[in-house]
Amino acid sequence: MKNSSVQIIRSKKDLRVQVKEWRMKGLKVGMVPTMGALHHGHLSLIKEIQKHVDKVVVSIFVNPKQFGPHEDFDKYPRSETTDIKQLEEVNTDLLYAPEAGEIYPDGFLTSVTVTKITEGLCAAKRPGHFDGVTTVVTKLLLQCLPDVALFGEKDFQQYTVLKQLAKDLDIPTEVMCGKLIRDDDGLATSSRNMYLSPEERQIALEIPKTLKQVIAEIEGGAMPLQEALDKGTQHLLDSGFKEVQYLEIRQSDNLEPITQTITETSPILARVLVAAVVGKTRLIDNMPIKILF
Ligand code: AMP
Questions:
Q1: Per DSSP, what are the bridge partners of residue 270?
Q2: Residue 37 CA: which ligand 1 atom is closest?
Q3: How many angstroms separate the alpha carbon of residue 21 from the centre of ligand 1?
Q4: What number of H helices and E strands is found in the chain?
């Protein structure tokens, strides 16, 4: 029987000591980086990684470098006590909850950049966001040195970027993707959903409905790709979204756009991805789609 209480560590030194001890016993270590305000999406990542490793480290760090100056860093939900209870429920071994100084000590001067796949989609309206993500994840992976790290399909561009990061920088961690979890009404589970009023939540539900509609129209051959996307964008605006930042289809493996010049005989595996703002809340979602020209 596993001990259900979670070990809490706040310094990289103590984290390294614990992970080294596990390693010396031949145990495999997994890491799930989060910003806390945990929900079913995070918990499903923990349950998934437990199938691949012996010990699981969950980190909670609200990373200031990935928020823009006018974004919600200050009001981002922080709920460590509730988070710890949830971590206990899924038998998490260790919570790494560093103070800001453990990640960005005085005099910190480095930024990590992945190019190309960090252009467009979420980056278009969030300049500097992915540099913040890649910098903090590089630090977390190097502080912990897990065998496996799991990131959610919900942030599909982020997962793609982090897989590239670990490969390019020879970080000895296998980067894996955990499936996107939705609430019962179909909305992708997110820490930011708690910002939504009941009316805004009703509007937000049009996101998964629109993605499904776009997929049906394109896969069923009823509509050319761009026409279906334009119709989907207009539908979201008509439903009450203040802004549709993007509704696009990209190839799953490299996030390249789909062009008519691709002449595959088998379907191209792609994703339809969206970011839209309802009230003051920015929501993202994505679903797989098969494209055949
Ligand atoms: P966050 O705390 O929002 O930074 O997310 C931490 C990790 O949980 C990231 O890898 C996210 O992609 C993942 N995640 C967030 N929401 C979901 C969800 N609904 N389903 C699956 N993974 C998720």
A1: 251, 289
A2: 2
A3: 28
A4: 10, 9
Q: Is 163 in the pocket of ligand 1 (CB under 6 A)?
A: no
Please report the sign of the dihedral spanned by the C-alpha atoms of residue 112, residue 116, residue 119, residue 120. Answer: negative
Alpha-carbon gap, residue 117 to 289, rounded angstroms: 19
Amino acid at 137: V
Q: Give the CA count within 13 Å in the CB-facing half-sphere of 212.
A: 7
- For residue 85, give both structure tokens: 């209870």
The per-residue pLDDT for range 152-210, each reduced to its tens digit, is: 999 999 999 999 999 999 999 999 999 999 999 999 999 999 999 999 999 999 999 99
Neighbour-count burial of 75, counting CB atoms closer than 10 A to its CB (0-12 exposed, 13-18 middle, 19+ buried):
exposed
Measured distance CA(71)–CA(75) in Å, rounded: 9
Q: Which two tokens stand for residue 82?
A: 């509730």
Given 3.30.70.1230, 3.40.190.10, 3.40.50.620, 3.40.30.10, which CATH number is that of 7-178? 3.40.50.620
pLDDT in tens, 128-158: 999 999 999 999 999 999 999 999 999 999 9
Q: Domain map of the chain by residue range? A: 7-178, 191-291
Q: For residue 29, give both structure tokens.
A: 């270590």
Distance of CA 183 to the CA centre of its chain: 16
- Classify 191-291 by CATH class: alpha beta
Q: Is there an atom of ligand 1 within 6 Å of 129 CB?
A: no
